[in-house]
């Protein structure tokens, strides 16, 4: 491609709307442009990048024996109503009506439709197992679309669904997808971690997420270097820890704590440690109020809480008015003693003695609180978020934590959708059996952001060859020098003849501008034709490499071809 013909609107300035590196670089390199919050167009370079990623996903799905099909994105409501997800998705689902007032949605994910397809098209047990997939645009009206392609409202997902006769079949289909995912993310050049994930509300017997560790990731992951355990925060099992406290039975004491609202203020006021406190937080869970307790230095994990309570909606912090009504006090003084709503306590609370809680009275706390004597929770359960330094639940080693970008998710669904929609088969004996399903998603467009988030430096993107929009660029230093232009074009033609997807920077720009652009758009390798062109000497430089090396034209071309073919 001649760069003079390319639509490549690179920007020198960092766009104000972008907070994270990948988003900034995708805008600056002219890969994408925003249309509305979470909705983007792909410009030519962005589309080439996208297609390379998509192609890797497709190749590996095909290699794994999955079959591609393509569903509509505009979907009639019925199947989602039958599964209950018309309500479950709530405001996340884009809903609309046609001219005859029929309900439709823009598909957020397609379990229902694939299940329906199997019901309609497959009738004999002999046709199982099957894994079907599509690479398709999904729509979710996310509460916080942000970070460019990372969390879009329109985004591309590869979604696959496996259909098996029994659990053993599902295990096999799941493993095949697991292996395919490992190949995909490796080929994308991503450094990824596989974590155990929560399968709570979705039912199902197992689930794993493919995470790219990154400070901008929105998911917390806990891992142990000693035994290889890794799980996301929702799934990670917390080992309760006992901290020192005053021993022996002491009488419950009410103390005046004026102007101390936060744990920090209380710690200072009372001369205690944060772990001597128990926080009591009031949640609204499906129209019921519950009090949730964790140690003062811990945080509640709302997904664990949701699974424990089995509520349909995500639990929400109770509004201040409700807190005042329940506790008869200002917000910040809730406690378990005599609160009058069910109390759910983290397992660690069970190990505490003589601790401090809110007294359900403004500016008052209780100290020397004891379980059993002063209050009794409904239940002790693991409802806190794991932290760095916790004990590994598998080997007792030390847990470390990191943020991760969820690029893929594989899930043993079991019979959730086949039961809801009636996907059955007749076995050899003519007996009706339920089909066992798995589902497997990759955020194809999110992968683009993840790749750039991992592969960049202060000058721009450093594309892995496997997904680079263009593989090489030939840059004549001075367009006015005919000799340079000729040689550069000849090198460009030779690279093309070798099957290299090359750029020729024939633009009438200063050399500095050309170099900056080549770096910004992350071309993996470049050949610069300059002063020594008359001697047949050019410069070869890999984008990720340190410095340019002079080579003969033949060597430079051969090295580009070798480098690209080895790294594709
Ligand atoms: P998240 O927790 O990030 O919202 P999810 O768990 O709801 O994602 P899944 O339903 O598991 O997402 O979808 C499969 C894959 O699709 C995810 O692993 C992720 O890579 C991608 N994905 C989900 N939501 C978005 C989005 N809003 N924008 C881009 N990619 C997304
Ligand atoms: Mg997920």
TrEMBL record:
InterPro entries: aa-tRNA-synt_IIb, aa-tRNA-synth_II, aa-tRNA-synth_II/BPL/LPL, Anticodon-bd, Anticodon-bd_dom_sf, Pro-tRNA-ligase_IIa, Pro-tRNA-synth_IIa_bac-type, Pro-tRNA-Synthase_IIa_type1. GO terms for biological process: prolyl-tRNA aminoacylation. It holds the Pfam family tRNA-synt_2b. One of its GO terms (molecular function) is catalytic activity, acting on a protein. GO terms for cellular component: cytosol. SUPFAM superfamilies: Class II aaRS ABD-related, Class II aaRS and biotin synthetases, YbaK/ProRS associated domain. It comes from the Bacteria. The keyword Cell membrane does not apply. It is an enzyme of class 6 (ligase). Its EC number is 6.1.1.15. Its main location: cytoplasm. Residues 38-464 form the Aminoacyl-transfer RNA synthetases class-II family profile domain. It catalyses: tRNA(Pro) + L-proline + ATP = L-prolyl-tRNA(Pro) + AMP + diphosphate. Belongs to the class-II aminoacyl-tRNA synthetase family. ProS type 1 subfamily. Catalyzes the attachment of proline to tRNA(Pro) in a two-step reaction: proline is first activated by ATP to form Pro-AMP and then transferred to the acceptor end of tRNA(Pro). As ProRS can inadvertently accommodate and process non-cognate amino acids such as alanine and cysteine, to avoid such errors it has two additional distinct editing activities against alanine. One activity is designated as 'pretransfer' editing and involves the tRNA(Pro)-independent hydrolysis of activated Ala-AMP. Consists of three domains: the N-terminal catalytic domain, the editing domain and the C-terminal anticodon-binding domain. HAMAP family: Pro_tRNA_synth_type1. This is Proline--tRNA ligase. It comes from Candidatus Ornithomonoglobus intestinigallinarum.
């Amino acid at each position: 491609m001649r760069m003079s013909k390319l639509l490549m609107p690179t920007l020198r300035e960092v766009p104000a709307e972008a907070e994270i590196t990948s988003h900034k670089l995708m805008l600056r390199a002219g890969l994408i442009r925003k249309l509305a919050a979470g909705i983007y167009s792909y410009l030519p370079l962005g589309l080439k990048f996208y297609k390379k990623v998509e192609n890797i996903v497709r190749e590996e799905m095909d290699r794994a024996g999955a079959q591609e099909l393509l569903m509509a994105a505009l979907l009639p409501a019925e199947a989602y109503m039958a599964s209950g997800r018309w309500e479950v998705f709530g405001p996340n689902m884009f809903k609309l009506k046609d001219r005859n007032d029929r309900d439709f949605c823009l598909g957020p994910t397609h379990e229902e439709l694939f299940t329906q397809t199997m019901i309609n098209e497959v009738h004999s047990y002999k046709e199982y197992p099957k894994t079907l997939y599509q690479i398709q645009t999904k729509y979710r009206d996310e509460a916080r679309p942000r970070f460019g392609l990372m969390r879009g409202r329109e985004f591309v997902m590869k979604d696959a669904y496996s259909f098996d006769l029994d659990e053993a079949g599902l295990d096999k289909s799941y493993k095949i997808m697991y292996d395919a995912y490992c190949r995909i993310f490796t080929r994308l050049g991503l450094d990824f971690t596989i974590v155990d994930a929560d399968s709570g509300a979705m039912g199902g017997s197992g689930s794993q997420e493919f995470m790219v560790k990154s400070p901008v990731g929105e998911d917390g992951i806990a891992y142990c270097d000693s035994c290889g355990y890794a799980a996301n925060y929702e799934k990670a099992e917390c080992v309760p820890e006992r901290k020192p406290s005053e021993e022996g039975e002491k009488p419950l004491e009410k103390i005046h704590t004026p102007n101390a609202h936060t744990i920090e203020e209380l710690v200072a006021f009372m001369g205690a440690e944060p772990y001597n406190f128990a926080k009591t937080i009031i949640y609204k869970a499906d129209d019921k109020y519950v009090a949730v307790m964790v140690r003062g230095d811990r945080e509640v994990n709302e997904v664990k809480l949701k699974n424990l309570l089995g509520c349909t909606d995500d639990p929400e912090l109770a509004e201040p008015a409700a807190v005042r009504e329940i506790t008869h006090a200002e917000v910040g003084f809730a406690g378990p003693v005599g609160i009058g709503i069910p109390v759910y306590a983290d397992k660690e609370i069970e190990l505490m003695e003589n601790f401090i809680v809110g007294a359900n009275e403004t500016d008052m706390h209780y100290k020397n609180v004891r379980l059993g004597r002063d209050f009794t929770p409904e239940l002790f359960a693991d409802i806190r978020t794991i932290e760095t330094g916790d004990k590994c639940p598998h080997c007792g080693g030390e847990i470390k934590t990191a943020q991760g970008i969820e690029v893929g998710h594989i899930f043993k669904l079991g019979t959730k959708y086949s039961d809801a929609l009636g996907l059955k088969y007749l076995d050899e004996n003519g007996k009706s059996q339920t089909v066992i399903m798995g589902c497997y998603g990759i955020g194809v467009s999110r992968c683009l952001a993840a790749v750039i988030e991992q592969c960049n430096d202060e000058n721009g993107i450093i594309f892995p060859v496997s997904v680079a929009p263009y593989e090489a660029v030939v840059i004549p230093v001075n367009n006015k020098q005919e000799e340079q232009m000729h040689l550069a074009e000849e090198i460009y033609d030779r690279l093309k003849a070798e099957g290299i997807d090359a750029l020729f920077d024939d633009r009438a720009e200063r050399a500095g501008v050309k170099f900056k652009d080549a770096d910004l758009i992350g071309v993996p390798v470049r050949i610069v034709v300059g002063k020594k062109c008359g001697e047949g000497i050019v410069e070869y430089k890999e984008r990720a490499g340190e410095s340019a090396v002079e080579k003969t034209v033949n060597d430079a071309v051969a090295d580009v071809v070798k480098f690209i073919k080895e790294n594709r």
